[in-house]
Amino acid sequence: MIESDLTSRELLQHARVGHAHLLWPAGRMRPPANWCDPRALQSAAGTRPGGTGRGATLRFDADGRALVLRRYRRGGMARRLGDRYLRLGLRRSRAWRELALLVVMQDRGLPVPTPVAAWIEPVAAWSPFCRAVLLTEYLENTHTLTEMLRSRPLATDQWYRIGSMIADFHAVGVDHADLNAHNILVGDDDSLYLIDFDRGRLRRRPGRWRERNLSRLRRSLDKLAGQESGFAFAAGDWEALERGYRGRASSGSNSAT
User: Fold this and answer.
1) Catalytic hit among 178, 188, 190, 198
2) Residue 52 confidence (pLDDT) above 50
């Protein structure tokens, strides 16, 4: 599986709803379109905001499932465009590619949120811009690594397991575009997950992208430790993470295809 395979028709199903496009994993239930409407959800009882910044999310329950909706929003120099993206074709959209990547990763047994749907709609019927959202199952009883380290230090074996988990993603070629302390989740049962694969890619070969992922995570942790008094991250923690990463990577338990 390489990056171009994320546009495969076999991974996702697609339906037109007016001028919008509803996407969902092939072979699974088609979700109702109203699950993907942030304006309707924001006014509904039982909907809870989650996250901060441009990655802010909405959490809600539907048909006995806890779900989370994330709107695609720009950052950096393109922040003034907000949630508007050029319409470059359905299979080139960030929503299509992230939903497909989640399907691939879940099929590989990697710890990611269960993908449910994506929704892409034009800003106006003939506008060159579109908006999009991603819908996944909510991971109950989890906290971001950032939240955990604000409250207490992690044990050495937990750091080791985080490194091993990252190596598992890298072994099958998953390049996380924004690996940071906010995108690693730790469960109350010590389970681990990676989230937010916007702009993530599947790589054919090992390369410097793996080092860039790890360097980005280290910068994230160092920045938080420098900004927040009591943030529980030290050099020894990173050493344990690296040992877990190297140990898993050298074991050859997975391999990129």
Assistant:
1) 178
2) no
